[in-house]
Design a protein that fits this description.
By secondary structure, the protein is an alpha/beta fold. It has 13 helices and 15 strands. Helix 11 runs parallel beside helix 13 and helix 12 crosses helix 13. It is globular, with a radius of gyration of 22 Å.
């Protein structure tokens, strides 16, 4: 009989093609709010879950799912259902006015793939500009846009027509410039990239409002506004990938609100379903008219269960004021991180908005050489003390469920700092 943590780990190691624990092997058995419990009964504060936007097993979310499964679970392509129709209306009301046509799929990769296809059809051109460090998905088209080599290596030739340009990673500016004096040089540089790599056939650009997998890197204020203008001047579509950044994650319902952006296509996912797989592409009626009815297909996208889940998630975010809560708790974390940056020379950069935050470790602040070892040590030791905080290379990302309490945030911050001090005292 399979009933112990070691049994589950053995099964995962033997059969699970995606089993790749970044911490000592653990089995997560249950969650509540921003708390996880593993197979040994060990509780940790979850600082890593951008999908469980309203927390693990929120009572209202659970109740909505229980009711939904008694009504209908699947969806029918080309048809609708009550939850689907209500979700369309809700998403159109929440997003900029021109975004009034919604397509639902089951993953962010799918909607990024569809964004490429729709942009090519709408503009009658084929090239797509994406950015270094960006990760748009794992399907063939979305993977081809990825700006991290580890997300696309050894799969052979990628989608033709993809052009890559630097993301404004100011802490590690590839041009060696300073923000105070660069005057957004990286936007002017885009013309050189397009002239050198393109064939005068650019249809769209796609960009994340912050690099998610690429290190929680935020562009400087005003950059995305200038980029949107750049795209409009060249008659190309501005596609904003908010799959990780939406539904309160950055302290706004959508990250585009920080600068009043009006993208031509908006991609949403992850936190939208609160754990049930669903993603959305939203665009204008004019752009969507480039496809005939029936050309879109999302398989089981827009099914009743997923749509009911999303409606519940949005209601909880709005009624419990989790967007404002995200901004407040994020400010609390960021204040602590900046204080640590002044005290500990191994912290090269801290950054973030809302509950999308990062601490970047370096061996030397002058060279900025990544300090991978310390990030991994902090991750492992913090888990033992009660904080789940996976490391990605030399960066710790902090993206808890939006429902994390002030007390949990304070305890998590104390544990991270205590762990950092212990490691510095003992190892380096």
């Amino acid at each position: 009989m399979v009933d112990s943590g070691s049994d589950f780990l053995a099964l995962a190691a033997e059969y699970d093609a995606d089993f790749n624990p970044s911490l000592p092997p653990i089995v997560i058995e249950r969650g509540q709010g921003a708390t996880l419990v593993d197979g040994d009964g060990h509780e940790t504060i979850d600082l890593s879950d951008i999908i469980a936007s309203v927390g693990h097993c929120h009572p209202r979310h659970v109740a909505a799912l229980q009711e939904a499964v008694t009504q209908l679970i699947t969806g029918k392509g080309g048809l609708t259902n009550p939850a689907r129709s209500k979700l369309f209306e809700k998403l159109a009301a929440l997003t900029p006015a021109d975004l009034n046509k919604v397509f639902l799929a089951t993953s962010g990769s799918e909607v990024c793939d569809w964004a490429i296809r729709i942009a090519r059809r709408a503009k009658g051109r084929h090239e797509i500009l994406s950015f270094w460090g960006g990760v748009y998905g794992r399907t063939y088209g979305a993977m081809s846009l990825n700006g991290l080599s580890r997300r696309k290596r050894r799969f052979g030739p990628l989608m033709p027509g993809t052009i890559y340009a630097p993301y404004p990673y100011c802490y590690r500016c590839p041009f060696g410039k300073q923000l105070e004096s660069c005057n957004y040089f990286c936007i002017d540089y885009l013309d050189l990239v397009i002239d050198a790599e393109g064939t005068d056939d650019l249809a769209a650009l796609i960009i994340e409002p912050y690099l998610g997998v690429g290190g929680i890197v935020f562009p400087p204020a005003g950059y995305l506004t200038r980029l949107q203008v750049w795209a409009a001047e060249r008659d190309i579509l501005f596609v904003l990938d908010e799959i990780q950044a939406s539904f309160g994650r950055t302290g706004k319902m959508f990250a585009l609100e920080w600068e009043g952006l009006e993208p031509d296509i908006l991609c949403l996912g992850k936190g939208l379903g609160g754990g049930v797989s669903i993603a959305a592409l939203i665009t204008s009626a004019e752009i969507m008219a480039s496809l005939a009815p029936g050309e879109l297909s999302g398989g089981n996208g827009g099914n009743y269960l997923a749509c009911a889940s999303s409606l519940s998630v949005i209601d909880i975010i709005e009624e419990e004021e989790l967007v404002e809560h995200s901004r407040r708790i994020g400010d609390y974390f960021l204040e602590h991180f900046k204080s640590w940056q002044e005290q500990y020379s191994v912290i090269g950069d801290v950054r973030g908005q809302g509950l999308a935050l990062a601490i970047e470790f370096v061996k030397d602040r002058e060279s900025k050489e990544p300090f991978v070892e310390i990030a991994g040590q902090i991750s492992r030791a913090a888990y033992a003390k009660g904080v789940y905080l996976p490391a990605t290379g030399h960066i710790l990302s902090i993206r808890p469920p939006l429902v994390i309490s002030e007390q949990q945030a304070a305890r998590a911050a104390d544990i991270i700092e205590q762990t950092l001090k212990e490691i510095l005292d003992c190892s380096f």
